[in-house]
Amino acid sequence: MDVSHILDNLNSAQREAVTAPLSPMLVLAGAGSGKTRVLVHRIAWLMTMESMSPHSVLAVTFTNKAAREMRGRIEALLGSASRGMWFGTFHSLAHRLLRAHWRDADLPENFQIIDSDDQLRLIKRIMKELQIDESKWPPRQAQGFINSAKDDGRRAGQVHDAKGGKGGHDLYLKAMTAIYQAYEAYCNRSGLLDFGELLLRSHELWLRNPELLRHYQSRFKVILVDEFQDTNTIQYAWLRVLAGQEVPLTVVGDDDQSIYGWRGARIENIQQFQQDFANSRLVRLEQNYRSTRTILDASNALIAGNSGRLGKQLWTEGEDGEPIDVYAAFNEQDEANYLAERMQGWVESGGLRQDIAVLYRSNAQSRVIEESLLRHNVPYRIYGGLRFYDRAEIKNALAYLRLVHFAHDDAALERVVNVPARGVGAKTLENIREHARQNAISLWQAIEQLVESKGVSARARKSLAEFMGIIYRLTELKSEISLSELVKQMLDESGLLDFHGAEKNDKAQARVENLEELINATKDYEPEENLTPLAAFIAQAALDAGENQAGEHEDCVQLMTLHSAKGLEFPLVFLVGLEEGLFPHSLSVEEPGRMEEERRLCYVGMTRAMKKLVLTYAESRRLYGQDQFNSVSRFIREVPVAFLQEVRIGSCLSSASDFQQSSPLAQNDTGGFSLGQRVRHQKFGEGVVISCEGQGPHSRIQVNFSEGSKWLVLSYAKLEVI
Ligand SMILES: Nc1ncnc2c1ncn2[C@@H]1O[C@H](COP(=O)(O)OP(=O)(O)OP(=O)(O)O)[C@@H](O)[C@H]1O
Ligand SMILES: [Mg+2]
Q1: Are 453 and 435 in contact (CB under 8 A)?
Q2: CATH 3.40.50.300 fits 324-387+549-647, yes or no
Q3: Known catalytic residue at 257
Q4: What values do phi and psi take at 627, rounded to 5?
């Protein structure tokens, strides 16, 4: 078979990684150097050269969307389907495993995944039962506590060992542990699994069941992981156990792009991998294929401000490209209008809207931008933000489906028993809960019993019977009609479609459209093996929440948070809201570790741009209902001025007071060194000149070395130009 096309368009380091023998390998490389491409080509290579069957491949991606895209690329390379391959996020893979082995994992067959809203609601309920004061211990804090314990692989019984008790901390720990314990017990009783539990449970499944583990270890011949720098403790443990001594791991990552530390991700896993697999192959990719030289060098200069990096050199054969634009807006409205106008200009000169991305630090920033785009008639969509499956109407519809699948799903029942309103009041509901608690039964069973025994008022009885009738009828239908017909029927019978359509606000139309989109989504839905379409769809929707796919085909501008931009690329990128306090976020200013993570986030943002990067900030901003007057972000100032270009004369670089101290930079050439130039220092190694001060022998120069940026007196520094 001719396999040369699999190696076409790969450089020699990429080829080495693609064709490496089956043993542990770490591909450590900067943004846009082809890490994801290497994974795709390696899978195609192994399937052709090593005759590996799709069944033997397990690949982990950061989003389910990325998994679908990569699968598509593999199929294009192979010219055949890739069914049977295990491809997805850690969560979706763990879920698949637990579905297949629910008995061994000690789960009911109908176990349900709960999302973070369901989880919070449950925690609130548990706190009430335990009589823990919500005003003292906010439920969100308890939620964070439970989730981070799970991410670290700790069960309620193990929390104490890890944290130890320290003075005043004790009370906190005691309350949190009690909540965690009760929560764990409740979830176990009701067959509910939160996201962290999926990993924890499947990890335990393997540890307790060596035979099953061996089965998978002999099934999978290779495990590949993208975005490895953002794995957390339990994910890495999961990989290690599965890989054992048998299955070679190919992991690719970039320490400079680790941006989920706040959610438990550990960059240290990169070094841990090298220790755990001492014989692993290390491949570095150093050529960047994504960005212009200007964008690349500016990003490199920025990230050089971080310490303790694993150190990478990235270069490009590409052209210099245009300077990076900096726009100083008066306020957030001005910023948003500027974006819309630039976008219109781009489209007028022949560019596509889908090539444009707007990246922001915080979700709340999107509203003003959205309004401006609407006013300017620029179609847009929010990537990963509005979350199709997180919208109220969709969650309501899914709750009905969940009940049809499994009537004892308490979270779903709580959500829709009175939506649309059918006269089940708060008091009745409290009655039902109490009855369920006392008899340790599900809410559904409690309703059945109360209706039968006339334990509730006649009016409530009628409403509840009506509600149960809907679920019964749909349950009968579910094996007779297709999934999309079932969804349609459900929307009619439950009254949801009419209810949302009649809402007296400007959302009604969109809600109906969303519900219709849900029918669409089920139309050509293909379930995974061994699941009914309904069960598979419900699980998929829970896992997909946060990855909005609606309107993907249209020519739309994309809006997203910096966090969800990971791994993506766009010809034109706007990085907005570059203000101290917003980005870097005010919470990170105190802690050096958090500040470095913010800088990596900025690096991720800048390196999404292929051709043109635009940075904006606002001199005043109304956000979260408050007026803020923040100074320009340090991140703009850390980019050598030589790469920047102010967009409006007199508005930014030349007049803003923040730039005055660095205005000598405008001279562009001091002491024989120019900004952005690469230099070598005897002790600190290679670095990039990022600013200069003064004249003659006393002039000082600031250089970003891999261990951080340093001010050096020119006459002593003995810098060598490279
Ligand atoms: N050898 C090559 N020749 C041409 N284009 C390439 C080559 N390698 C990668 N590319 C292109 O460069 C871009 C970046 O590649 P890719 O997304 O795989 O990089 P990455 O290292 O995964 O980036 P990130 O760190 O942002 O995830 C893509 O458009 C890819 O198609
Ligand atoms: Mg990638």
Answers
A1: no
A2: yes
A3: yes
A4: -85, 130
Domain layout of the chain by residue ranges: 3-103+199-287, 112-190, 324-387+549-647, 389-545, 677-721
Q: Is the CB of 36 under 6 A from ligand 1?
A: yes
CA of 74 to the centre of ligand 1 (A): 15
Residues in contact with 657: Cβ distance below 8 Å, sequence separation at least 6, in sequence order: none
- Its CATH architecture, for the domain 112-190, is Orthogonal Bundle (1.10)
C-beta 40 within 6 A of ligand 1: no
Give the mean pLDDT of 602-625: 92
The residue to mutate among 5, 33, 37, 228, having the most atoms of ligand 1 within 8 angstroms of its beta carbon, is: 37
The domain made up of 3-103+199-287 has a fold known as: Rossmann fold (3.40.50)
Q: Ramachandran region of residue 199, left (φ > 0), alpha (ψ -120 to 50) or beta? A: alpha
| CATH architecture, domain 389-545 | Orthogonal Bundle (1.10)
What span, in angstroms and rounded, lies between the C-alpha atoms of 450 and 442? Answer: 12
Amino acid at 646: E
**C-beta 33 within 6 A of ligand 1:** yes
CA angle at 226 for the pair 223 and 229, rounded to the nearest 5°: 115
Strands 249-253 vs 222-225: parallel, antiparallel or unpaired? parallel
State both tokens at 520: 């669409």
Q: Is 65 an annotated catalytic residue?
A: no
pLDDT in tens, 46-83: 999 988 999 999 999 998 888 888 999 999 998 887 78
Stretch 570-577: mean pLDDT: 98
Is residue 634 part of the annotated active site? The answer reads no
Whole-complex ipTM: 0.99
